[in-house]
Structure prediction request, 228 residues.
Amino acid sequence: MSRNENASDGSLLSSQLPREFFARDVLEVAPECLGLELVTHTRAGCARGRIVEVEAYRGPEDRAAHSFGGRRTARTETMFGPAGYAYVFLIYGIHSHINIVTSRVGNPQAVLIRALEPLDGLPLMQQRRAGSLGTALAQRQLCNGPGKLCQAMGIDRRFNGVDLLAPQGEHQEHVFLTSGSPVRHIATSRRIGVDYAGEWADRPWRFFDAESSCVSRLPKRGSSSANG
DNA sequence: TGAATGATTTACT
DNA sequence: GTAAATCATTCAA
Prediction:
């Protein structure tokens, strides 16, 4: 897939994102990540999806974040680094999750990618996801969850700490982000699976494309959680 | 060295 | 609606 093209005048790749975009507060960056595209190249092949759901994790103040209280360990180290890098971790002993590091060095914030709309490499996604099922899935079910999308895209902790803004040659395994299509209608909700964090779980820090059917949980009927 | 737990998914009632 | 799968990470000792 040679979707990226060098502009003839020598400017940046048309689809490449500036690091400064991610070097802002996570609450600014997270909703603007909707519509961006996540791409993986592995030996098994390429896959691409449009981000339709994210959550903001605003450590060290955010009790729901791994970096809460400034906790800096081997696992969370990537969150303390520069923006635009991938923080990938394993949860429940089974599932990988991928985040985009935001803010400045030393401020451990990240955007969790929770759902994608599959665009390229659907047969490969089916093959990877079928391992645990054995039956064909609907397109919307391939990447409608943080663990599901990592499985479908072939993402695991090998990709922890890689630069999401630096595409490599196609012969090398990597994951990166490109610009995509804008999202018309962004909705918000409380974050999922962080009830232990008390009042922090009530913050409307989950952002999703209200018009996409590929999100992990569809908005309630009549819900009006629209957000600019 | 050992024990507790989790930013989930799936299957089953 | 509930529960099981499954293990890296973390913390206490």
About this structure: Residues 55, 57, 64-66, 89, 91-95, 97, 99, 112, 114, 132-133, 145-148, 191-194, 196-197 of chain A lie near DNA strand B (CB under 10 Å from a C1').
